[in-house]
Amino acid sequence: MSVPATSLRLRFTKMHGAGNDFVVLDLRDGTPPPDAALAARLADRHFGIGCDQILTIEAPRSEGAVASYRIWNSDGSASEQCGNGARCVAAWLVRDGAAQGDAFVIDSPVTAHRVERLAGGEYAVAMGVPAFEPAQVPLAGFAHARDEYLLPLQGESVRFGAVSMGNPHAVLEVGLVDAAPVERLGPLLQQNASFPESVNVGFAQVADHDHVRLRVYGRGARDSLACGSG
After folding, report:
1. Measuring CA to CA, how many Å separate 161 from each of 29, 56, 104, 173, 175?
2. Is the peptide bond before 138 cis (omega within 30 degrees of 0)?
3. What is the pLDDT of residue 6?
């Protein structure tokens, strides 16, 4: 498949949080965000810049916020939430001078987030309270929240938990995350009618009492190195 050769001048910043990488665009001057086709071209790792997601920094939407941001997946679709992206936006705004002090607020597509500057150039973002009710995930076919759900997929029963952090997640506990069927079960769950808005599929290995290893087949971004909301 060939990509049309078109000329486009674009100022951008390339950033990552824990390997989850982004192209950051400053649109505070009112420049419209990229459409789905342009977002997908920018994210293409062969013919574009290459990234998991695109972050557009825009004017604040809530009182007291220093800026807002939106999230575009590598397939061009929009996303509601991204924890690693929020940290990158926070760092970008501090470097730009728009955010000052040890704490400030930024608007994501779903809510406002309080950001704290930590030692060593790190940032902590208040992501909010997880929502477990199926209607909030959303997860169809179940009336009430459960610790575990069961779905038949291609002749096998898949057990998972479901939660929303502003975006939907299905979490499967696995014995060894490196051997998890990420590329097989990820798309099957995303395309299942039980997830009307698709879903980020996490494969979690409990390493010990304090540590979990996680791989996420992202909605619109596929298998990324990290997921801040997962």
Report:
1. 42, 31, 33, 9, 16
2. yes
3. 58
Give the C-alpha separation, 89 to 55, whole Å.
8
DSSP string, 80-139: S--HHHHHHHHHHHHHHTSS-SSEEEEE-SSSEEEEEE-GGG-EEE-----B-SGGGTT-
- Say whether domain 12-125 belongs to CATH 3.10.310.10: yes
Question: With a cut of 70, which residues of the chain have pLDDT below it?
Answer: 1-8, 222-223
Residue type, 91: A
Structural tokens at position 121 = 């150039």
Domain regions of the chain by residue span: 12-125, 134-217
d(CA 47, CA 118): 37
Catalytic annotation, residues: 82, 227
Structure tokens at 33: 């965000």
C-alpha pair distances (Å), 141 with each of 102, 132, 135, 155: 44, 14, 9, 19
Rg (CA), the chain: 18
Question: Given this structure, which CATH class describes domain 134-217?
Answer: alpha beta
Predicted confidence (pLDDT) per residue in 181-214, tens digit: 999 999 999 999 999 999 999 999 999 999 999 9
